[in-house]
Amino acid sequence: MGEIHCRVARGVRGIELSGVYDPDATRSAHIGRLYETVATSSLDALFDRSDAIVVAAPSSFHASIALDAIAHGCHVLIEKPIALNIADARAVASAAASAAVVCAVGHVERHNATFEELQRVLADDRPLAVSIRRLNYFAPRIGDADVTLDLLIHDIDLVRTMAGEEPRVIYATGLRVLTERLDHVDALLSFPGGVIGSLTASRITEDKIRRIEVSAADRYVVADLLRRTLTIHKRANAEWAHGGPDVAFRLESVTQQVQVPAVEPLHRELTDLMEAIQVGRPPKVVAEDGVRALEIALEVQRQAEQVASGVIEHSLRRRPDVARAT
Fold first, then answer.
1. Cα 154 to chain centroid, rounded
2. CA 132 to centroid of chain Cα atoms
3. β-bridge partners, 209
4. Residue 35: how many CB atoms within 10 A of its CB?
5. Which of 47-56, 98-107, 123-132, 235-244 has the lowest mean pLDDT?
6. Nearest to 114 by CA among 250, 322, 262, 14
7. pLDDT at residue number 242
8. Cβ of 163: how many Cβ atoms within 10 Å?
9. pTM check: above 0.85
10. Pairing between strand 219-224 and 103-106?
11. Cys-Cys with 111: which of 20, 90, 140, 265 at CB 3.0–4.6 Å?
12. Opening angle at CA 103, ends 155 and 44, nearest 5
């Protein structure tokens, strides 16, 4: 992910790639040559030559690197999740506030032009139910995060943004299939204002899907974040037709298809970081957003882990060979 940030950052007007660091010196030197920047020998050396740092390390290092960067006076963009536990996440948010530096969290789908267009289409038409599916093939490079913190946390952030509040009730279930961690999770979030969010994240499929379905009072909208399309089904007319003994119901609707221009979300995210630093405003996704998304994700993870453990135990009890051995 760090290399992708390097590639995109070079194309953002106003950003100068000040350097890169990787514990693997060979890889660090390769990335430095590839993107014509300095491969520093340490994180401290990188902090000393930078105004802002992108933390794109394994998730278990996010908090510690971010805290060190903030201590050096650097602004930070932390890839999601902001940390792996709430204490570390709050420590990062508190340190950034105390140091008066910008702290953005990489919930990049908030910068997806299709999601932004979805919000514009809905405008004041408040969502009633939101269903989000994020399906992916297995990526071995993700070694220290399950599907909840790798994929589902994106959609937790999106649905809480659409609801405009935090969920009141959370239900979750999950499966371990390819790894010892959760590989498939379904979560149901109920919000105080009445919005229901249904989220599915999986890394056991052979297809890549990023799809949001929204049911509102007078429309049903489908957003495809990969194909950058919106399909809007809006009710135009509904009436009962009385004709003697026959009664018929007629429903007329209008369907609109919107193609959203191609703009790389990561480009918009890095631009937002730069402008937040220059203007002195909060970024689109602030540290507290990262903390809230993590809190919800960890509760989903806790419930899904309980279910996954129960499924494994149940399946073992049903196997004849295990039954004979016991």
1. 2
2. 11
3. 135
4. 17
5. 235-244
6. 262
7. 59
8. 21
9. yes
10. unpaired
11. 265
12. 120
